[in-house]
Automatic annotation (TrEMBL):
It comes from Escherichia coli. It comes from the Bacteria. The lineage of its organism: Bacteria, Pseudomonadati, Pseudomonadota, Gammaproteobacteria, Enterobacterales. This is IS4 family transposase.
Length: 50
C-alpha cells in the first residue's frame, strides 16, 4: 500500500500535539455595556393629537 498509512499515523500524532486545551470558565462573564451618549437627552414627551 505504500507510505500512506505511515503518513496518516504521523499526521494523527501531530494533530494531538497541536490540539488546544479546553477553555476555562470566566471569573467575570462578559456583559454588554450601556452605550455612552455624547450629550444629555430629555425624555420624549408624548405628542398631542390635533
Amino acid at each position: 500500500p505504500g507510505r500512506i498509512p505511515e503518513l496518516m499515523r504521523d499526521l494523527a500524532s501531530m494533530g494531538q500535539l497541536v490540539k488546544l486545551p479546553t477553555r476555562r470558565e470566566r471569573a467575570f462573564p462578559r456583559v454588554v455595556k450601556e452605550r455612552p451618549w455624547k450629550y444629555p437627552t430629555a425624555p420624549k414627551k408624548s405628542q398631542s393629537v390635533a
